[in-house]
Amino acid sequence: MTAGTVIIGAGQAGLSAAEALRKRGYEGPVTLIGVEFAPPYQRPPLSKGYLSGELPAERLWLKPEAYFDAARIHLRTGVHVTRIDRGAKCVITGEGEAIAYDHLILATGGAARRLALPGAELPGVHVLRSLAQADALSDAMAGAKRLAIIGAGYIGLEVAASARKRGLEVSVLEAADRPMARTASPLLGGWFGALHRGYGVDLQVSTGVAAITGAARADGVRLADGERIEADLVLIAAGLVAGTQLAEEAGLACADGILVDAHARTSDRDIFAIGDVARFESGLYGRSIRLESVQNAIEQGRAAAAAICGAPAVYDPVPWFWSDQYAMKLQIAGLIDGADQMVRRGDPEEGAFALFHLKDGVLIACEAVNAAPEFMAAQRLIAARARPDPDALRDVTVAMRAFLS
Questions:
Q1: Do 194 and 253 belong together in one domain?
Q2: Is 374 exposed, middle or buried (0-12, 13-18, 19+ CB in 10 A)?
Q3: Residue 289: which of 314, 238, 255 has the closest Cα?
Q4: Residue-number span of the structural domain to which 78 is assigned
Q5: H helices then E strands: how many in the chain?
Q6: Which of 8, 74, 211, 222 places its Cα 20 to 30 Å from the Cα of 238?
Q7: Are both 140 and 183 inside the same structural domain?
């Protein structure tokens, strides 16, 4: 009897791979292992609709419970895998159980980054990555008046918006000179900074944090210049640490992620890695990238399943991301690194606009705020490595017409 495919990580990527295996007619056993006790769920709403109280928990589930039996996917939750035995082709759980595999898929995601700050381990200091962490933060917010957030990336800003909806006073402290400095253009980051300030957020940039203050529990944040920000609770929103420990200990090639080829295969041909934890070579951008997005989780999971089923296809996507903050929907297609020209369509003052980014005349990215048609058109243009007339980008229908002709 075949051992089948074992998937470590029951999030969006792991579920996508399991589902794709069955859709492709894979007949072997499929075991989906999650360390959390919850069934596979959506992570993006944790900092948005779920935290603000607008989305109930049952709306987070990616599949109804009956799906897993019907699809013959053995879902095991609350199971911690401690080791991969590549020689024996099995994984070992925390209880000493050995689970054999023919193919292994690592969808281990990552953990919220914690900072080595004095006071970072105090009660009242939170991070946000899992459902349990979202519940803990939400419960703490219910009895709080003031929230301090360290970090103005997507999670920090989304939580700020959710907290303002719940009536909390919010301070956001960012070391860089603008919000979303790692992923967004200066214009977009500055625009979102102004948006949050307009909703009453105390957003401070170019601001270092020296410590989290408090005795029995956190009661504020002390800045590098000595100023103290009072808070009833603190969120550290400092990004993600890729979950590579299992892979590293098993001797798989890693470098800020598990290194995979164009088919999501690791340095062991029987082991694949997908989603937030996987680093692959992007032909589109000419460098290795690791993507933290739902789109990548879903599509790379499908790519791994295709390879296991004997139908490998090159995985080279146009990355895309989104964020909801207040009434603003941000959608980003592509990666802006290296852009040397920006073309704006629409007026930021009106709350609907798109920023097109080009490198050597080639469209490489688009940042769209409440501008879905521009975002969707840009995805196609980026995939085609199009060289649109910059003037035409100010009218996306003209740019698309030129592309299709």
A1: no
A2: buried
A3: 255
A4: 5-111+240-308
A5: 11, 26
A6: 8
A7: yes
User: By C-alpha distance, which of 342, 392, 396 is closest to 367?
Assistant: 342
Q: What is the predicted pLDDT for the residue at 256? A: 96
Contact (CB, 8 A) for 191 and 179: no
Please compute, for residue 308, the number of CA atoms within 13 A of its CA located in the half-sphere on the CB side: 35
List Cα–Cα distances, 88 to 4, 103, 369, in angstroms. Answer: 14, 12, 51
Buried b / exposed e along 338-347 (16+ C-beta atoms within 10 A): ebeebbebbe
CA-based nearest residue to 60, from 89, 40, 83: 40
The enclosing domain of 266 has a CATH number of 3.50.50.60
- Report yes or no: 292 and 155 within 8 Å, Cβ to Cβ: no
Contact indicator for 370, 351 with CB cutoff of 8 Å: yes
Q: Which two tokens stand for residue 350?
A: 């009106």
Q: Output the six-digit token pair for 129.
A: 């990555």
Domain of 387, CATH number, reads 3.30.390.30
Q: Are 7 and 77 in contact (CB under 8 A)?
A: no
Q: In the chain, how many domains are there?
A: 3
pLDDT, averaged in runs of 10, over the chain (405 residues)? 94 98 98 97 96 93 97 98 98 98 98 96 97 97 96 97 97 96 94 97 98 97 97 97 98 98 98 98 96 96 98 96 94 96 94 96 97 95 95 67 46
